[in-house]
Design a protein that fits this description.
The protein has 213 residues and is of the alpha+beta class. It has six helices and six strands; from the N terminus they run H-H-E-E-H-E-E-H-E-H-E-H. The chain has helices at 2-11, 37-40, 55-58, 101-104, 116-120, 135-212, and strands spanning 43-45, 52-54, 89-92, 98-99, 110-111, 129-133. A hairpin with a 5-residue loop joins strand 3 and strand 4.
């Protein structure tokens, strides 16, 4: 029964480390010097949400006895909880930070309506939290979108150039074929004309022979 509960808990958590993005095989970041690699690679599951982090990225030596809570349940600047910070906390969907409105100030961020991946796991955000994309992640997203747009435009331009080159090549081939066909017709017409000139001469010779008779 305990194994079933553990499996159920695992199914309700992410697979990648929320700090570095490393998968089940290990973190992207090298382990801290005070932890053996195999210990640093062990995963911590947040007791309050689907977040997961390695011991190494959490910089912990052992698992907390009362369970581990990810960084997104406290403001990264003032360390207050949502209830302590006026009843609202913003959680970034792309990185493991959270912030309160007071500490964020006028810094821009991108509001995110929902997190379908977490909802599929059966997790719905409490009313005291809102999904966002923090300032840094928002900038990264804009840069990535700009790069993708530039790449798409370059691919379209390349495809258009290739199509134009193919059209020019096809037009040249058609022109060459038309020229060859016209040349063939001219040769055929010249042959018929020569044959027509030769016919009267032979008929006149035949007439002269009849007169001599």
């Amino acid at each position: 029964m305990a194994r079933l509960k553990a499996a159920d808990r695992a199914a309700r958590h992410e697979v990648s480390c929320c700090a570095c993005g490393g998968g089940p095989d290990g973190c992207v970041k090298p382990p801290p010097a005070f932890l053996a690699p195999d210990v640093a690679a062990e995963r911590l599951r947040c007791r309050n949400c689907p977040r997961i982090m390695s011991l190494g990225c959490a910089r912990l030596v052992i698992r907390p006895r009362m369970g581990w809570q990810c960084p997104q349940h406290h403001c990264r600047s003032c360390n207050r909880t949502a209830s302590e910070a006026g009843g609202l906390m913003f959680r970034c969907v792309d990185c493991p930070i959270a912030f309160c409105a007071e500490c964020n100030g006028e810094a821009p961020f991108d509001a995110v309506e929902s997190n379908p991946e977490w909802e599929d796991m059966g997790f719905y955000l409490p009313k005291s939290f809102e999904y966002v994309r923090c300032t840094d992640c928002y900038k990264v997203r804009l840069e990535r979108e700009a790069e993708e747009k530039e790449k798409a435009e370059a691919e379209r331009a390349e495809a258009a150039a290739a199509a134009a080159a193919a059209a020019v090549k096809a037009a040249a081939a058609a022109a060459a074929a038309a020229a060859a066909k016209g040349k063939s017709k001219r040769k055929g017409g010249a042959g018929k004309a020569d044959a027509g000139k030769a016919a009267p001469a032979s008929s006149s010779r035949g007439a002269n022979k009849k007169r001599h008779r």
